[in-house]
Design goal:
The complex is a heterodimer of chains A (160) and B (288).
Chain A: E1 5-11, E2 14-20, H1 26-33, E3 52-55, E4 58-61, E5 74-76, H2 89-96, H3 106-119, H4 125-131, H5 143-159
Parallel strand pairs in A: 1-5
Antiparallel strand pairs in A: 1-2, 3-4, 3-5
Chain B: E1 2-4, H1 9-18, E2 23-26, H2 32-37, E3 45-48, E4 58-60, E5 66-68, H3 74-78, H4 81-86, H5 88-95, H6 100-103, H7 108-113, H8 121-128, E6 131-136, E7 139-144, E8 149-151, E9 154-155, E10 162-168, E11 175-182, E12 193-202, E13 205-214, E14 221-222, H9 224-230, H10 237-249, H11 261-283
Parallel strand pairs in B: 1-3, 2-3
Antiparallel strand pairs in B: 4-5, 5-10, 6-7, 6-10, 8-9, 11-12, 12-13, 13-14
Helix pairs in contact in B: 5-8, 9-10, 10-11
The chains are: A alpha+beta (160), B alpha+beta (288).
Chain lengths: 160, 288
C-alpha cells in the first residue's frame, strides 16, 4: 500500500482537497473522492475521451493524469459549464439537436467542444471533426453532435 | 508505489540510480499511465519531472536553434509559430500523435523513450539532426536521437539516466523538412510507415539531406543511401525514383495486421518521394 498524499486543487473554480493513493488517476479522484460524477470512465487508456477535463485550461484525458498531478492546478469539468440553472449554449443545443442517446460520451464532448470554441469561435466542420477525433460516440453517428456544436458556435458568435 | 517530484534533474537521476525496483519517469504520462492501468508496468518509484525548472519551456539557443523542454506538450509546440516556421516537419510529426486530449500532455522525449519503432515524432527529429541531453550519475552527455532507441521498447539509457532536453539545430537558409505517415484512416492511428525528409538547397540543387524512416524496422532508421540519392540533384524524376528505391531497400519491417512486409516496403518509397517534394517546396519558400 502506498502512502496517501494530500492534494489541494481547484475544481470548476472551487477549492478542493483530497487524499489519494499516488496510483489513482485524476478521473478516479474526481469521482471517488470529490463526487464529481460528470466525468465518465470509458476506456481508461486515453482512447475514448469520455473522461475529458481541462487542466489549467488545456484539454486532457483525466484517466491519463494522476490525482497527485492536480496539485495547484485548475480542473474544469462539465459541472462548471452551466451558470446555475441556465445551461451553456452547447448543452442547450445538444438537447435541441438530440445529439446524445446513452449520454456517456456527452460530458467529455461538451468540455472538448467548449475548449475549441474558446480558441476558435468559428471553426470549420473539418476543424471541429478533427478536434473531436479523440471523443468516441457509439450511439449518434456523430452527425447530430457536429450539427449541435456548429449551431451553438453560431449562436455564441451572434451573442458576443 | 512511491511518487517523487524532484526539483532538479540531478535529484531525479539520484532517485532512479538509488531505486531497487522498477522506476519510471513521468512527464506527459500518455504511455506510462496506460502501462500502469494495463498492469504492464507498475513502477515502485514514479519520478514526476514536471516540477523541475524549465521543463515546460521552448527556447532559442544561441546559434539560432531550439531547445525543447522535456515536459513541453505537442499542442504547445504546434502553438509556437516561430518553431513551426523553422521546423514544420518536426512539429507535424509530433502533432500527428493521438487526439487533442493526448496532444495536451504527450511529449517528444516521452515518444522517443517509449521506444516504439512507429513513434511519429522520431523520424522528424532524426532527419532534423536533433540531439538530446542525457543526464545520469556519471554526468551529462549529448546523444543523437537516432542513437537512443535500440529496439522495440528499448533505449540506450542506463539505470539512473534520463533525457533532460531536446536540441533542434538552427534551421539556416534555404532549408525545409517534412514528415508523412501512412495510416488506413485520417486520425488516431499508429503509423504503418512514417518518413521524414530534411534538406537544404543552393539555388535549385540539394546540397544537404537527411532521410529517416519509421515503422519499417525495429527502430527508426537514418537512411544515408536515400539522402545520397537526392544530394546534388534538383529532385528530378530520376532522383525521386532513386530515393524511393533506396528507402524501400532500407526497410526490414514486420508483417502484421496493419501492413504486410511488401506493402510497408513499397509505401516507404512512396512516402519518401512525397515528403521530399514537400521539403523541397518548403526550402524554396513555397507553401506546402
Amino acid at each position: 500500500m502506498s502512502k496517501r498524499i494530500h492534494v489541494s486543487t481547484t475544481v470548476n473554480g472551487d477549492e478542493a482537497d483530497f487524499l489519494c493513493d499516488p496510483r489513482e488517476t485524476l478521473l478516479d479522484c474526481l469521482r471517488d473522492h470529490l463526487g464529481v460524477m460528470g466525468v465518465k470512465e470509458g476506456c481508461g487508456t486515453g482512447d475514448c475521451g469520455a473522461c475529458s477535463v481541462t487542466l489549467d485550461g488545456r484539454l486532457v484525458c483525466s484517466c491519463l493524469v494522476l490525482g497527485v498531478e492536480a496539485e495547484g492546478k485548475e480542473v474544469g469539468t462539465v459541472e462548471g459549464m452551466a451558470a446555475g440553472e441556465v445551461l451553456h449554449p452547447l448543452q442547450r443545443k445538444f438537447i435541441e439537436h438530440a445529439a446524445l442517446q446513452c449520454g456517456i460520451c456527452t460530458p467529455g464532448i461538451l468540455v472538448a467542444a467548449k475548449t475549441l470554441l474558446e480558441r476558435n469561435p468559428d471553426p470549420t466542420e473539418t476543424e471541429l471533426r478533427y478536434w473531436l477525433a479523440g471523443n468516441l460516440c457509439r450511439c449518434t453517428g456523430y452527425d447530430k453532435i457536429i450539427r449541435a456544436v456548429m449551431d451553438a458556435a453560431a449562436e455564441m458568435r451572434e451573442a458576443s | 508505489m512511491n511518487y517523487h517530484s524532484p526539483s532538479s534533474f540531478e535529484e531525479a537521476s539520484a532517485i532512479a540510480a538509488g531505486a531497487s525496483g522498477t522506476t519510471r519517469f513521468l512527464a506527459g504520462g500518455t504511455d506510462v499511465l496506460v502501462q500502469l492501468r494495463a498492469d504492464i508496468v507498475t513502477p515502485d518509484d514514479l519520478i514526476d519531472i514536471k516540477h523541475i525548472p524549465g521543463v515546460k519551456e521552448i527556447s532559442r539557443t544561441e546559434d539560432g536553434g531550439w531547445r525543447i523542454g522535456v515536459a513541453v506538450a505537442g499542442a504547445e509546440m504546434t502553438e509556437c509559430a516561430d518553431l513551426c516556421a523553422d521546423w514544420p516537419g518536426v512539429v507535424e510529426g509530433m502533432d500527428l500523435i493521438g487526439s487533442t486530449q493526448v496532444q495536451g500532455r504527450a511529449t517528444l522525449v516521452g515518444n522517443l523513450c517509449n521506444g516504439s519503432p512507429a513513434a511519429d515524432s522520431v523520424p522528424g527529429m532524426i532527419a532534423a539532426g536533433c540531439t538530446v541531453t542525457v543526464t545520469g550519475p556519471e554526468g551529462s552527455r549529448e546523444v543523437a536521437v537516432e542513437d537512443i532507441p535500440t529496439g522495440p521498447g528499448r533505449t540506450v539509457l542506463a539505470k539512473g539516466e534520463l533525457i533532460t532536453g531536446v536540441t533542434i539545430p538552427a534551421r539556416g537558409e534555404h532549408g525545409g523538412d517534412a514528415y508523412l505517415r501512412f495510416i488506413p484512416r485520417t486520425e488516431m492511428d499508429i503509423a504503418v510507415v512514417g518518413c521524414a525528409v530534411n534538406l537544404r538547397l543552393d539555388g535549385d540543387t540539394i546540397t544537404e539531406a537527411r532521410v529517416s524512416l519509421g515503422a519499417v524496422a525495429p527502430k527508426a532508421l537514418l537512411v544515408e543511401e536515400a539522402a545520397n540519392a537526392i544530394i546534388g540533384t534538383t529532385l528530378d524524376d530520376a532522383a525521386l525514383d532513386a530515393l524511393a528505391a533506396a528507402a524501400s531497400a532500407a526497410c526490414n519491417p514486420i508483417d502484421d495486421k496493419r501492413g504486410t512486409i511488401e506493402f510497408r516496403t513499397h509505401v516507404a518509397g512512396v512516402l519518401a518521394k512525397r515528403a521530399a517534394k514537400i521539403a523541397y517546396a518548403r526550402a524554396k519558400g513555397e507553401s506546402a
